[in-house]
Design a protein that fits this description.
The protein is α/β, with parallel strands linked by helices and 392 residues long. The strands form three sheets. The protein has a seven-stranded mixed sheet with strand order 3-9-8-7-6-4-5, with helices on both faces. It is globular and about 60 Å long. The structure holds pyridoxal-5'-phosphate (PLP). Pyridoxal-5'-phosphate (PLP) binds next to α5. Pyridoxal-5'-phosphate binds next to α5.
């Protein structure tokens, strides 16, 4: 009997449940139209909100950095991996975010797991929205602090937790995504900040889907609500709208000083490659120079969403360019996604257990890089499929 039996059985059980999947292969850049498994399709499934992943200025910055700095950083930051580009990026990001200091990590995921466990400890409480991202959940698991969960975006339930537990702990942290990726809704930050003040708690916002999207020129959810100075830890990713890879937390200098000594991904994992750091610097510069990129994103998002709503589709509670198209039934959702693919449009179907049972949806991610033709082709495909499957 194979010693791998214990995993073979698990994989087989995925197959038996019909949830085993092959990864689609993209044979080129993550552009508005991609070659997916040999089929040219309109790409409505990337987080490349601003098209920066394929922008000539960003690509050139990466190329120049490879010539000047090599392919890899060669070490963790605390040894010799701290190339000057990283410091330049952090200063630029702090200026862009209008916060005291920024510390970067190798990804948004790393940033959350490294930061949450470093800032909290025994005797503290981490209070988390039930729909927070997996990297927050893992960060909470790695911390020695206690945890509590409140109902999604429900400030009354959050207050219930604070009222019940505040007195038993030293520091209390309220953790939330800024924008929730499955529905595209925005966290009620003004109310959360008010509760944090009343109950003497710290606020931690993971703005992976808000950075480069919401606020002035993509300065994020905190800027969108004009809450500068009121959120203690603002996490962002450089992998989505910014178009490259990396994560960061915008915060106080003291927090940065501490994370440089106790942020485990910084101490034990190699620094960002120079091509990524330099490309990111260029992306942030582009946002600081002009709002044209975010304006194009929002114009595309409004056009797409309005067109689907006019056809009779339910686009849920989204307030961002994330456009869920609610279908309900799981099998029908997957059939819809497959029919769209056959019509040359790739939109992933999202079903239980990623979202609650019976709330299957297609999740269309709109980008500034989409042309009107791309969006019209997608809208037409939605219309035909929606009629064929009795959704509209
Ligand atoms: C995508 C995402 C992350 C992870 O960011 P990466 O840079 O891709 O590692 C973290 N938090 C949230 C809310 C996200 O949506």
């Amino acid at each position: 009997m194979s010693k791998w039996r214990f995993l073979e059985e698990k994989v087989q059980s995925l197959k038996d449940q019909g949830v085993y999947r092959e990864l689609p292969v993209n044979h080129g850049p993550c552009d508005h139209v991609i070659d997916l498994d040999g089929r040219r399709v309109v790409n409505l499934s990337s987080n490349n909100y601003l098209g920066f992943a394929t922008h000539p200025r960003v690509i050139n910055a990466a190329k120049e950095a490879v010539d000047a700095y090599g392919a890899g950083a060669g070490a963790v930051r605390t040894i010799v991996g701290n190339q000057d580009l990283i410091g330049r990026l952090e200063e630029l990001l702090a200026e862009f975010k209008e916060e005291e200091a920024v510390i970067t990590f190798q990804s948004g995921f790393n940033c959350n797991i490294g930061t949450i466990q470093a800032i909290s400890g025994k005797g503290d409480l981490l209070v988390s929205d039930e729909l927070n991202h997996a990297s927050i959940i893992d960060g909470v698991r790695l911390s020695k602090a206690d945890k509590a969960v409140y109902r999604h975006a429900d400030v009354d339930d959050l207050e219930r937790v604070l009222k019940e537990k505040r007195a038993d702990y030293n520091n209390v942290f309220i953790l939330t995504d800024g924008v929730f990726s499955m529905d595209g809704d925005i966290a009620p930050l003004p109310e959360i900040v008010a509760l944090a003040r009343r109950y003497d708690a710290l606020t931690y916002v993971d703005d992976a889907h808000g950075s480069g999207v919401l606020g002035r020129s993509g300065r994020g959810t905190v800027d969108h609500f004009d809450l500068h100075g009121d959120v203690d830890f603002i996490v962002g990713t450089l992998s989505k709208a910014i178009g490259v890879v990396g994560g960061y937390v915008a915060t106080k200098q003291t927090v940065k000083d501490w994370l440089l000594h106790r942020g485990r991904p910084l101490l034990f994992s190699t620094a960002l490659p120079p091509a990524a750091t330099a490309a990111t610097i260029e992306s942030v510069k582009m946002l600081m120079e002009s709002e044209e990129h975010t304006e194009k994103l929002w114009a595309n998002a409004r056009y797409f969403k309005r067109s689907l709503e006019k056809l009779g589709f339910d686009t849920g509670i989204s307030r961002t360019p994330i456009t869920p198209v609610m279908i309900g039934d799981e099998a029908k959702t997957l059939r819809f996604s497959k029919a769209l693919l056959e019509a040359g449009v790739f939109v992933s179907g999202i079903v239980y257990p990623t979202v609650p049972e019976g709330t299957g949806r297609l999740r269309a991610m709109i980008s500034a890089s989409h042309t009107k033709d791309d969006l019209d082709q997608a809208i037409e495909a939605f219309k035909e499929t929606g009629k064929a499957l009795d959704v509209i």
